[in-house]
Amino acid sequence: MSDSHKLYDELVSKYKEYSVLSTVQGVLHWDMQVIMPPEGAGRRAEQLAILAGLSHEKLTAGRIGELIDKLNNSPNGLSEAHRANIREIARDYQLATKLPKEFVEEFSRVKTLAHEIWAEARTKADFGHFAPHLEKLVALSKQAANYYGYKDHPYDALIDQFEPGGTAKMFTKLFDEVKAANIPLLNKILHSSVKANRSILNRDYPADLQKKFGEQVMTQVGFNTKAGRLDVSVHPFCSGGKGDIRITTRYNEQAPQQALFGVIHETGHALYEQEVSGDYLFTPLGEALSMGMHESQSRMWENFIGRGKPFWKHFYAKWQAIFPQQTRGVSMEDFLLAINHVERSFVRVEADEMTYDLHIILRFEIERDLIGGQVSVNDLPTVWNKKMQDYLGITPPNNGKEGVLQDVHWSEAYFGYFPSYSLGNMIAGQLWNTMRNEIAGIDAKIENGQFSEILNWLREKVHLHGRRFGRDELLTKATGSALDTQHYTGYLSHKFGELYQL
Amino acid sequence: MSDSHKLYDELVSKYKEYSVLSTVQGVLHWDMQVIMPPEGAGRRAEQLAILAGLSHEKLTAGRIGELIDKLNNSPNGLSEAHRANIREIARDYQLATKLPKEFVEEFSRVKTLAHEIWAEARTKADFGHFAPHLEKLVALSKQAANYYGYKDHPYDALIDQFEPGGTAKMFTKLFDEVKAANIPLLNKILHSSVKANRSILNRDYPADLQKKFGEQVMTQVGFNTKAGRLDVSVHPFCSGGKGDIRITTRYNEQAPQQALFGVIHETGHALYEQEVSGDYLFTPLGEALSMGMHESQSRMWENFIGRGKPFWKHFYAKWQAIFPQQTRGVSMEDFLLAINHVERSFVRVEADEMTYDLHIILRFEIERDLIGGQVSVNDLPTVWNKKMQDYLGITPPNNGKEGVLQDVHWSEAYFGYFPSYSLGNMIAGQLWNTMRNEIAGIDAKIENGQFSEILNWLREKVHLHGRRFGRDELLTKATGSALDTQHYTGYLSHKFGELYQL
Questions:
Q1: Helix axes B168-190, B486-499, angle to 10 degrees
Q2: Of A105, A355, B251, B343, which has fewest CB within 10 angstroms of its CB?
Q3: Other Cβ atoms closer than 10 A to B333
Q4: What is the mean pLDDT of chain A?
Q5: Residues of chain A neighbouring B229 (CB-CB closer than 8 A)
Q6: Kind and range of the H or E element at A33?
Q7: B315, B303, B308: which is closest to B219 by C-alpha?
Q8: Cα-to-chain-centroid distance, residue B37
Q9: Other C-beta atoms within 10 Å of B450: how many?
């Protein structure tokens, strides 16, 4: 074995220790949100703080820096994949060495407690209860941005954690393009004479039957139930990795579409993790490219496939079999229109496909100005409500589940994450157009409940590569061009034009 | 702050890192047995191996040895509690430094995989499937005994992990005393004209109702449900600690006594962990004294209290309310006799109070001879079945759930643990006699469903002290004398004499 291979193996085995410790934190976070009794919070905070410190210690070990330097100086005989893994380990190392261990531990402790307080505050719609904790999270996030460094705006440093190279400026431009196309389209839809009958979804759909149907869909699109689970939590999420991937949802018995599309969304995330390369587990090439790429998968399955007509040509009879009374007199077309109903609404995770990006743009702007210092924590309820009025034409009735406290992200200091959701839509639009050209008779296959070609296509074009390529590099290989929002806006225009007879 | 206090604080904070990492392993073990999908085993093995290595590294850090030496050389100004904590940290440090880190990691990896194989082999009653893994576990355990060192017998080194100072010789003597008293008593019971009507328990008791009753009992005896949970696993256990204590059980719908007394047993363990001193969390004074002491608590609640007449004078009406049809025409006395029915049986965890110790003695002797090298792994099914015939007069119909594969312990290399169960009975007998003298009207209180004085007594005499005293020291403080088996054998003789009219 050559010297460079020995050094590479040592580097990867050191990175693996860090990576495995991160997955342990994932298990504890899952447990905290799904299983843990309330008085376990203090104990869990101790556990997470020590693990955060240890995994940081592992990633920032001086030996990792030495190995990266040596490998960069004499990369002879290393394959392209090896070089990509070294490049990405170096990225993680550089990001992590910028934060002192004590800072990481303190941040973890504050986040764990803040999360518990947020859950209470959200239930009570009491922003003041959460505000002092959010102050701390914002201050610590600004401090993190300073540690990371940035050229233009401190928020750039936070975005970069989730979306390498992403900036406030870049997203402002992308969002402008999306707004320019979508706002006129939204107005047309809201004035269309076609009206969905949403009341057919407000009937009583028992949670256990919703779960049964959700599991049917998960399994049929390709989720391996021997290597994963579906559970319940306040805020739905996907965690774990190849071999043990766990998704969660929450059931509203008078609005089954929430859990249904939530499950399909999280299944999209899960399929990405499930189909990564087994050869590169616990290394960057076995990890998702970015949060935006992750969201492209979840939103592809949720909306492009799961809210499409071919999908329901296959699944509607199964849905009727599970809910015979609730679907009496409801045609597949009625149902399709109901699950694609467009409206002005308060809650992001329940928002329809057309208005979803406006919810994201609102959060993006607030985060940018909060981190930039133009908005203070105490102003948040006011700023939130004003922007809701400006963009969606409605004012939330409270600061809790319908208002500023609705999302889990800020309680975990995930500033910079939100833009990834809309980026995911844009990427999904672009992948979708190419995939439709390359898989012959794709709609007929979906109508027959055959999803394996779609999953294979996504696996080969996206999942298997992990972090091997950058976003635009991967998109160019997969679709022939870098990110271009026209694919997404064109998809929306076509789909809703048809549904609403515009 | 004096120098010795500074050193003490540093020692305790270093020990705490180790201790918290151990609790993380506890969460992952719980998850593995309750929640984890089957294909998660490889991933979990990686996680547990790294955590085992890290917690070992933390406990064996040279600085801990230095701090212990310094504190032992100048203990001025330290309280008795501080000195006890230093003594017990030193014990853990010395035990751990004897095992090389690589050995600990390898052992953890082998155990995790062996556990999965054991679960399959047990279901298929296929000893050969598990045997090669058990070979490895025995070899590694012998190697561990050599690392630890011992005077008399390698098994002593393994027992000492769970029961400090316990030896094969000591247990042989204790078990001889128990056998001499119990075998004649067992024969009298089996020949008594009083016969329980066990068929009243073979009716259909739905699992969800069993769970409901179990939770009632847990709560009423003092388990804080905001700081713990009850779940299902193949082999029942208790894990976690103050703030988040989790017990498990399994439901047999035609034998509700199994889960019922399983839950009360695990609740006994849980109450010990729940009532330790909050001032000493994550240090030895916040941990249970020994496995034998732990079992004394579980078996006290399960048998001495939970299978007693006063307990059912309180709970029988509640049981009837949950199971009105199943208990039709069944008096409290019929029920009491049925749950105290004595018989020759195959499965330890389902064995009655009278024959239980014989199951333990069998395992104790097999482990002793397996570790001593007088018995080989391949002989185990034969040796097991012969001893079952000799001690209990019956031969198991298979090597699975009714035979040699029934217990989880060997799959986790818990050699040396089994004797603790019977030691627990002996300790419980001694505590019970003193407690009955010190709590006026104890039976009447139990009949009224009042358990707080019992829990207070156990907290003050046992739980709060953690590892501050040795077993005999604690027993002498609590009961006036060191361990004496006559309390336990006398208790059995009195209880079963009354039930079976001997």
A1: 10
A2: B343
A3: 12
A4: 95
A5: 35, 37
A6: helix A3-34
A7: B315
A8: 26
A9: 14
Contact yes or no for A244 and B43 at CB 8 A: yes
**B286 touching A, CB under 8 A?**
no
Lookup: tokens for A491? 């998809």
Query: Cβ(B42)–Cβ(A244) under 8 Å?
Result: no
- Give, in order, the Cα–Cα distances in Å from A249 to each of A33, A177, A211, B501: 11, 32, 9, 58
Return the residue matching tokens 């994201």: A360
The partner residue sitting opposite B227, judged by closest CB among A24, A40, A282, is A40
| A334 alpha-carbon distance from chain centroid | 29
Q: Note the pLDDT tens digit of each residue in A40-61.
A: 999 999 999 999 989 989 999 9
DSSP A145-214: HHHH--SS-HHHHHHHHHSTT--HHHHHHHHHHHHHHHHHHHHHHHT-S----GGGGSS---HHHHHHHH
A275 annotated active-site: no
Given this model, what pLDDT does residue A1 score? 64
Dihedral sign (CA A86, A87, A89, A93): positive
Write the DSSP symbol of residue B300: I
**A34, closest residue in chain B (CA to CA):** B35
**pTM of the predicted protein model:** 0.89
The predicted-structure confidence for A450-487, as pLDDT tens digits, reads as follows: 999 999 999 999 999 999 999 999 999 999 999 999 99
Amino acid at B455: L
- Residue pairs between chains A and B whose CB atoms are closer than 8 Å: 88
Interface membership of A61 toward B (CB under 8 Å): no
Give the CA diameter of chain A: 72
Residue B317 phi, psi dihedral angles, 5° rounding? -65, -35
Helices (H) and strands (E) in chain A, counts: 20, 3
Strands of the A244-249 sheet, one edge to the other: A228-232, A244-249, A238-241
Asked if B434 and B474 touch (Cβ cutoff 8 Å), the reply is no
* C-alpha dist (Å) from residue A50 to A92, A101, A206, B21, B164: 20, 10, 41, 8, 29
CB A194 within 8 A of CB A303: no
Residue A136 token pair = 């701390």
CA distance B39 to chain A (A): 5
Cβ contact A142:A371 at 8 Å: yes
Give the ipTM.
0.88
* DSSP line for A454-484: HHHHHHHHTGGGTTSS-HHHHHHHHHSSS--
Yes or no: say if A451 and A221 are a contact pair by the CB < 8 Å rule.
Answer: yes
Yes or no, beta carbons of B37 and A225 under 8 Å apart: yes
d(CA A368, CA A373) in angstroms, rounded, equals: 8
Distance of alpha carbon B239 from alpha carbon B292, whole angstroms:
16
Tell me which residue in B23, B38, B227 faces A37 most closely, judged by beta carbons: B227
Q: Which amino acid is at B4?
A: S
Closest CA relative to residue A1, chosen from A72, A82, A68: A82
Three-point CA angle A2, A6, A10, nearest 5°? 170
Instruction: Tell me if residue B191 falls in helix, strand or coil.
Output: coil
- Spatial strand order of the sheet with B228-232 comes to B228-232, B244-249, B238-241
Strands A244-249 and A228-232: parallel
Q: What share of chain A is helix, strand, coil (3-state, %, to 5)?
A: 70, 5, 25
pLDDT tens-digit series, residues B119-145: 999 999 999 999 999 999 999 999 999
Q: B237-296, pLDDT tens digit by residue?
A: 999 999 999 999 999 999 999 999 999 999 999 999 999 999 999 999 999 999 999 999
Of A24, A46, A226, which is closest to B20 when you measure between CB atoms? A46
Residue A228's beta-bridge partner residues? A245
Distance separating alpha carbons of residues A377 and A366, to the nearest angstrom: 10
- Euclidean distance between CA atoms B276 and A26, whole angstroms: 29
Describe the crossing of helices B127-148 and B101-124 by its angle, rounded to 10 degrees: 150
